[in-house]
Amino acid sequence: MRAAYRHALRRPSVTSEDVAADLGIPLPEVERACTELTTLGLLREDTRRPSAYVAVEPESAAERVIAPMERAIRAQRAAVETLRGQLQEYGRIYEERPAPGGGREGVEYIAALGATREAIAELAARCETEVLTSQPGGGRRAEVLQEAIARDEAMLERGVSMRTLYQHTARFSQGTREYVERVSQRGAEVRTLDDRFVRLLVFDRKVAVIGVEGDPGAAIIVREPNLVHFILSTFELWWVSATPFPLEWNNQDVADISEQLKQRITLLLSEGLTDQSIATRMGMSVRTCRRHIAEIMDRLGVKSRFQAGYLLGAQRAATRPDTPPTPPTGEQHAE
């Protein structure tokens, strides 16, 4: 494919037959290469010469091919943020919840970790068709994985389909990778996202278990159909934005994920969030977060975190002239 592109660069226009004859490559192979180069935007049809191609500068090809994809990704992220805000509105429901031991139709609050585990185990044992899981916060602890693997393998062996979401940082956890490999071999699908999302499980599209912010032992069990439907819609939006968890990956995969993490950290820096807030949101340690921030500062050519935040904020404001910057509020933002 590279040889065909190099050859096209040497002429005003070229046909597949020209390339095959000049380079001594079989015509079917050249035709496949030209098709792939056209898909990448590196070749375009010559309007003045039927069946001929004209080479395109890679930067122009990237603008034409990648730009629409980037716009779609930005639109998806905007939709994710909108749904995130909507989901947070249900915090009012949590605040109005009855005292532990009480309940109301469709929504149940469980305060104790033991009771939460029992409820999840019971729902998993009764699950018949599908379980959806989102687990933010990076790699999971060994004892949690040990408890989960037996339960999840039992569901998979019964024919239950399983989709699980982690954050990108979970890819660097050996224990989590081993767990993903085991469940993937039994048909589970696992993907990752760069940003934080809500901890939840959904069984048979009828019952959802939602984690309680600030209380890892508590949970909300939702059976109300409209709320469950909303939670499912949110999960599906996360899912289409996520990327598959690779069972095997090379140095380039590691570099790609690291770059995605840096891009997200850059955005959060421009929002004025503290190192601790960014680390929590990204599912990584503060030390790892600060290492990424140091590399970002080095790229920007600045010496202080304040300079980096100011520069990134200015750049972001310049690209969004109609949107005034959001002032820092609360303890999550740096002063």
Automatic annotation (TrEMBL):
InterPro entries: Sig_transdc_resp-reg_C-effctor, TrmB-like, Tscrpt_reg_LuxR_C, WH-like_DNA-bd_sf. Pfam families: GerE. SMART domains: HTH_LUXR. GO terms for biological process: regulation of DNA-templated transcription. Keywords: Plasmid. Gene3D superfamilies: Winged helix-like DNA-binding domain superfamily/Winged helix DNA-binding domain. It comes from the Bacteria. Residues 263-312 form the HTH luxR-type domain. One of its GO terms (molecular function) is DNA binding. Residues 316-335 are annotated as: Disordered. This is LuxR family transcriptional regulator.
